[in-house]
Amino acid sequence: MILLQLSSGQGPAECCRAVALAVSHITRQCHKAGVGLTVIETTFSDNKEGYKSILLRLYSADDDAMATQLAHQWQGSMLWVCQSPYRPRHKRKNWFFSGAVTEVDEHTMSKEITFQRCRASGAGGQHVNTTDSAVRATHTQTGICVRAESERSQHANKRIAIALIFNKLEAMKSQQLNAQNKIRWQQHQTLERGAPKRTFTGEQFKEKR
Questions:
Q1: Residue 65 phi, psi dihedral angles, 5° rounding
Q2: Mean per-residue pLDDT for 129-134?
């Protein structure tokens, strides 16, 4: 499974707008290349005209290499140069956003997940209301639980659920790493004075005993 996440980071509304424009561009690219595109998860900007973050799945029935190649074109930091559509007199014209590509082993991930069929809810017509196409997925180790019901087939919803859980696991790892880095940084600000456990002296950094 090939996932592409586009993010505006901590950028303003213009960066979020750049992500939305990028998604439109990617959609056209995929259509031209015969690559499928599914929106897995979105976080809209405050004005609803852009995305703070969006997770996409790219796939190809014939050759996943094409989907992989297309996704990697959006890996890394990108720049949108444009006068602000929201602040006409704003001097800044450079708006950055980023893309990250991840290839997920569906077979391995599915072994870590418990799936449960359930009735889809909400809009979707008669088909959605009369079939158990929705999926509730729970990651056994962490207890992370998601629900996928946007697709009509249970198989397709399972794929979406796997992608959602994988994304949440990656976010959890990132938060833990950020917390560790924050603790390390705070250590610089809260050094304990006196009674050191070890002392080093001189340019040769010799330990004093």
A1: -60, -35
A2: 68
